[in-house]
Amino acid sequence: MESHAHPEPDQPAPTDQQDVPGPSSGASDTAQGPVLRVGYETGMMPGKWLRRWRERGDGLEEQQLAPGQWPQALGETVDVALIRLTPHPHTEAGAALADLTQLRESFHVVELYDEQQVVILPVDDELTLLDDVPVGELADEWLLQELDQLPEHRPSAEGRGTDDAGAPRQLPEIADSGAAVELVAAGVGLYVAPMSVARWHHRKDLTYRPIQDLPLVPVVLVWPKDLPEQTEAMVQDFQGIVRGRREGSSRGSESEAIASRADEDLSNSRDPEVQRAASAARKRSKAKSGSASGGSRTGKGTSRGDQLAGKRLAGGRPRRSGGGRPGGKPKGRGGRPGRGR
């Protein structure tokens, strides 16, 4: 698995979570064809992958998911999801989904990359003097998260994170990471989160520092094992884009076969306009495949040494240097024809 990687943040995620598709058994259909529904958690910016999918002309619906809500959304409002796994799987019932091994028992899972954990803090905090903050430096700080989410953190009895009796302070009500960041800006405490979350909630009065001695946060692509056949084919295509597979690679998919059958339908149409469009599309496809394979090389455009070597291997005679054509007379000094002997 890659480490410290992060997708290109080139397309902002939608923030309105009200307009989401209703429950269904698979990808939705429109007048243009089937639509793949992709979900991703707060802070993730898969704009590059979504753009490549749309460039293929395929339908797409995207939905931002609240952390930990993907099991309810997967298969209902989204077909495939980008999610984070906790670096510390819990033992209580239901939390085993955070463990990669057990997750694969119920879902298809593709490991993508790992995220660095960082501490979000005010720009004038003294910890900003450090390039990265050891977790031990946070002992005197009040971290705005449950201690079981960060078992490496040991709050000191005299620090801000404990009461007069030395017990951990009761956390205020925190709805999500955005609310936690607001509390950091208000000077209440500090907040540890994956780096992409810190970038998502960027503010001029806040910054972040990596915590190198905390475990990385795995990011995976996950989808149900019982998707309809057509939806499964689209998910396979999408995960190929996410993993960097080029369109038309040796690992084909059923969606390509579906597209091929659609081309056949166009070719068999009696409408002259449709036939011309189908013919033009086939010509473009052949031209593209020919240029992609590189075609056969000829002597044209190669060096003179390559051309001569090719002629010798073919049993031909190299062209004479003089006269510009076979049988021409060699030139003497000054460009004049030499005297015959």
From TrEMBL:
Domain LysR substrate-binding: 78-235
This protein's record includes keyword Metal-binding: no
SUPFAM superfamilies, alphabetized: Periplasmic binding protein-like II (SSF53850)
Cellular component, GO annotation: protein-DNA complex
GO MF annotations in UniProt: DNA binding; DNA-binding transcription factor activity
Family: Belongs to the LysR transcriptional regulatory family.
Name of the protein in its database record: Transcriptional regulator, LysR family
Organism the protein comes from: Kocuria palustris PEL
